[in-house]
Amino acid sequence: MTAAPTGNGARILVVDDDPGLLDLIEMRLAASGYAVSRAASGAEALELFRTERPRAVISDLRMDGMDGHALFAHLHAEAPTVPVIILTAHGTIPDAVAATQRGVFGFLTKPFDGRELLAKVAEAMAVSPQVDISSGAETGWRAGIVSSSLVMEELLRQARRAADSDDPILISGPRGTGKESLARAIHTASPRAGKPFVVINCSEFAGHEPGSSPLAQAFAAARGGVLLLDDIEELPSVEQARLLPLVREHNLFSAPTRGAAPDMRIVASTTQALDQAIRDGRFRADLFYAIGRLAFNMPSLAERREDIPALVAAFVAQSHDAKRGLSPEAIAALQEAAWPGNVRQLRSVVEQALALAVTPQVPVTLVRRLLKEEAEREMEALDEARRAFEYDYLVQLLDTTGGNVTHAARVAKRNRTEFYKLLARHNIDPASYK
Fold first, then answer.
1. What does the alpha-carbon distance between residue 120 and residue 49 come to, in Å, rounded to a whole number?
2. Is the pTM of this model over 0.85?
3. Among residues 104, 197, 404, 409, which is most buried (max CB within 10 A)?
4. Is residue 4 part of a domain?
5. Residue 288 sits in a domain of what CATH number?
6. Which of 173-187, 198-212, 279-293, 399-413 has the lowest mean pLDDT?
7. 111 preceded by cis ω (within 30°)?
8. Is the confidence at residue 46, as pLDDT, over 70?
């Protein structure tokens, strides 16, 4: 009796410069329900990998041009969680063992046994979850994340695997990249889906007495689900000390019991490099290591420009005027922009363009004007931040030196005339600090 196919359509990329062997492997895999992509060289395999996104790769070790070692190095650099299985002749077994030590998922010797091949592929499928990254996906655990880029696919593969555990997660990345969206996607894919997902910004803790901290209320609201601590670097030291044992114990409301599930999962997000905050004494190193058992970094929009057309299409579909669109030239201009505000800024520009356009297609001229205005606002915000920093610095310096302008100018490495001009610019009277 023939066994039922088990592949469920999962795509496998097979790489070998021997057409006969490619035929044999494809026949074995297809008979078990796998979809097979074929490549006769490493260079061709890289192109197929980037366009077809297979869940596993089977590659010969010895090939002309880019061999299996070089192909694995490229694949591992771009997508380290995609399993790579190496095919090797008996004489190259030491090479295959060395490759396994570098991260290759496994190897099979030629001539291979069909059952052994299928068993190894099944093992690879078990650690390589299916990730639906189709452009504009509306359903599924990652429906809130629109992407078709390789860098996001790799991130989503790792996130999907992390969803099955209850370990704390640290998500870092610039503002506007979608850190909360990733946290929600992980929650949706996890056994806690349907339970509360509570977000609290750690800057809200300022001014609260320890006994009246919002943290206790957040714990109660998130029980059984997920608590996202946004801007974790802003968490006051007293609350860091309170959070640490709870994260370590992994059970926030009762003493640990063997086999008991944690009451909630802790996820933290940050826009800063916490190692600098640790060096400055603003963040506890032990809390960083405890909360960062699983760490993800959201790429900036500039690192995933190929996602911009899909993101634009999604924003248009979500608008009140979904029949309107952006011209190809307008989309090209968006792909070339700097995007310091990342996906959040892109959404803002698209929404403004849709609201202001009077033609069925948003013209590139309107998009360029909006991008220029956005850039000017960014510069104004930067100037305001610089002026605020300069004012605070001068006030602190005068307060430290008791209003002694000569001393303060020396510390600031400015001559007295320049220093007086700085004070006049900010309407600061040094006499009030004496």
1. 20
2. no
3. 104
4. no
5. 3.40.50.300
6. 198-212
7. yes
8. yes
